[in-house]
What does this fold into?
Amino acid sequence: MAVEVSILVEGGKAAAGATLGSALGPLGVNVGQVVTKINEETKQFAGMRVPVIVRVDPNTRAFTLVVGRPPVAALLLKEAKKEKGSGKPKTEVVGDVSLDAVRRIADAKGDDLFGRTVEERMNQVIGTCVSLGLTVDAQDPRALLKARVGARSAGG
It folds into this structure.
């Protein structure tokens, strides 16, 4: 039966430090190979923290990786080219993202989000914009959500 080690790494910058070394060392896995593979598979998420599960077969010492997706907030901040969200999201706007970016993030996150349709998932991403102090196509995300929900209930 495989042993799983869950870690959170910065995309493309995993290191064979204490966390990985102490978890994987006793399993007899080449930690350097694991780190190289993690960095290859997470480099597109540079600057974001990515959940990774390392599955090790203790008999063969073979390993496989399951790379998760960064949180919606991290994807939005990268899109807005910001380090962090607003400390006062109700009054302070720190950046703007496009509705196209919201759709791409909703598509990328897929089943990680709760909505059944792309529209519902987009609304969830727009809700995260509210928490971060981001506007969507220069609009207040709260007003945009009201308009989207209102349009859906009026049309259906």
The beta strands are 3-10, 49-56, 63-67, 95-97, 134-136. The two ends are 50 Å apart (CA to CA). The chain is about 45% helix and 15% strand.
